[in-house]
Specification:
507 residues, Rossmann fold, binds adenosine-5'-triphosphate, alpha/beta, 6-stranded mixed β-sheet, binds magnesium ion, 2 domains, 24 strands
């Protein structure tokens, strides 16, 4: 038996106008954890889609060997039958089905045409135990947070006797605690003999668990390392990813906050379904001109709910409290009203709230600025193109054309389109919710520079971030939230990880 469970030889994959993969080779040893790193659009997800049969045989050149045999997959079903499972960047569960239905969907057996539901409920419990998810198997998946949904996907993989597990940015929507649990789980799988390939932009996590790392750049395989033998460091990976050294992850900025531009007093938000339940409880804070304010706290602390409800009641059954903009009491009844009052929102969930996937990059970027781009009620096409081209350049959106559908962009490049759209709308106060999720290290720095420029022009940024180093590196002040409440506030100079955690846990 070969030492390699997976071997990719000279793989080339083209889409109209894009060579996504260019003569890529990769070897993954049986039983190891292998990480794939690379900038947004480098070709990581595409490579794994080829391996798992999402892109069928015949749509690419080159060879893929799995367990010593050349593969001939026409769909994901074919690879799953052989113990190869991929968990995609965007989760793929059926939200309105239960946990156990999701686990066994598509591979339930029937006796005389009847499915034995009780059997599957019991069976699913075994897999939930293995991934450490303490939920009733009959729970509807949409009621679970992203972290738990991720675990359901993995339980589903286990139920199919997985031998090679491919995880595409599994921790990008998870908080520190959930991430570290997931990484432990991958290590546990390794002890059980399961091979994993993990795509990730979080290089510290990569170095924590990977045995081997392969770096892709512009569709080419640049380097492969044995983490221990080669003494691999983050700097080495970054250098291969971007082709140069990257020194300042958080660009320097002199901050000169001015007068208070936004003030929120005693803001409470009620759950959209359970109308008496408070998701945000009596939150008060303020934001000054020329200031970056970060909101930290664990997943479910209520940060997104707070901001979305302030943003024209975009979340919640109802809210109460006072909002002041420029010292004037205001009520914003809709997202549109918020936008006209100078608020902009970059949403954390680019799929459901941010982007129209079946429209072009250009249309998505201009969507919040149609008025500005119009004369006499008609959108001026040349200006629309000009602006879209500008953001494509500034944020290095990787695409052959701004007329490309957003659906065809890599995950990180979709996120850049969301950011572009809000930048073009040019609000006074930018609310950015996890603005760098899924974005590579180089492009992160570009986004940080853009945010710094905004505050230098006297605009304000409210940032929700689950990455504490990012919040601490960028913000003038940090509010710490937990369980729907603002638990405390720290200035830039006094903030450290421990203090933030301690405040989050205060009674
Ligand atoms: N269906 C498609 N049609 C056209 N182009 C595509 C399609 N899928 C991917 N691409 C292009 O192929 C390239 C590689 O994309 P891929 O999604 O593999 O990148 P990635 O390395 O996973 O990036 P990220 O870190 O942002 O997720 C990108 O330029 C992308 O726009
Ligand atoms: Mg990807």
């Amino acid at each position: 038996m070969s030492e390699y469970i997976l071997e990719i030889q000279n793989l080339t994959k083209e889409f109209p106008g894009v060579r996504a993969l260019d003569n890529v080779s990769l070897q993954v040893k049986r039983g190891e954890i292998h990480s794939l790193c690379g900038e947004n659009g480098a070709g990581k997800s595409t490579l794994m889609s080829v391996v798992s049969g999402v892109h069928p045989k015949g749509s690419y050149e080159g060879k893929v060997f799995y367990k010593g045999r050349e593969t001939n997959y026409h769909s994901v079903k074919d690879s799953e039958k052989e113990g190869l499972t991929i968990i995609h960047q965007e989760l793929a569960l059926s939200p309105y089905l239960s946990i156990y239905e999701n686990i066994f969907l598509g591979h339930m057996k029937t006796t005389y045409g009847v499915i034995n539901w009780n059997y599957y409920i019991k069976e699913s419990q075994k897999f939930l135990d293995r991934v450490g998810l303490k939920e009733n198997p009959a729970t509807i998946v949409s009621k679970l947070g992203v972290g738990k949904q991720q675990l359901v996907e993995i339980a589903r993989a286990l139920s199919k006797q997985v031998e090679l597990l491919i995880l595409d940015e599994p921790t990008s929507s998870l908080n520190d605690e959930e991430s570290s649990k997931l990484l432990d789980l991958i290590l546990e799988f390794k002890r059980q003999g399961i091979t994993s390939i993990m795509i990730s932009h979080k290089l510290n996590e990569v170095l924590k668990i990977a045995d081997a790392v392969t770096v892709l750049r512009d569709g080419k395989s640049i380097s492969s390392y044995d983490v221990k033998k080669d003494g691999l460091t983050e700097a080495m990976i970054i250098k291969d990813m971007v082709g140069r050294d990257l020194t300042h992850r958080f660009p320097e900025r002199k901050s000169r906050p001015g007068e208070t531009i936004m003030e929120v007093k005693h803001w409470s938000v009620y759950h959209p379904e359970y109308h008496t339940m408070k998701v945000v409880d009596d939150a008060s804070f303020h934001v000054r001109k020329g200031e970056i304010v970060a909101f930290c706290g664990p997943m479910g602390a209520g940060r997104t709910e707070l901001m979305m409800s302030l943003y024209g009641q975009s979340y919640g059954f109802r809210s109460e409290g006072e909002l002041y903009l420029h010292g004037k009491r205001t009520t914003l009844k809709s997202a549109r009203a918020a936008l006209t009052s100078g608020l902009g929102y970059v949403s954390e969930d680019r799929k459901t709230l941010g982007l129209i996937l079946i429209q072009s990059i250009k249309a998505n970027i201009s969507a919040s600025s149609l008025k500005k781009l119009s004369r006499f009620g008609i959108v001026a096409a040349p200006r629309e193109v000009e602006e879209a081209e500008k953001y494509r350049r500034d944020l290095r959106i990787k695409t052959p054309s701004i007329n490309q559908l957003v659906r065809n962009l890599s995950g990180g490049n979709q996120q850049k389109v969301v950011v572009s759209r809000t930048l073009l709308a040019d609000p006074e106060i930018f609310i950015v919710d996890e603005p760098t999720r899924g974005i590579d290290v180089g492009a992160k720095t570009e986004i940080y520079e853009i945010l710094n420029n905004l505050v230098a022009q006297g605009k304000s940024v409210v940032m929700i971030s689950s990455e504490l180093p990012e919040a601490m590196g960028m913000a003038d002040r940090i509010y710490v939230m937990n369980e729907g409440k603002i638990k405390g506030e720290l200035a830039h100079d006094e903030a450290d990880q421990e203090k933030i955690m301690r405040i989050a846990l205060l009674d």
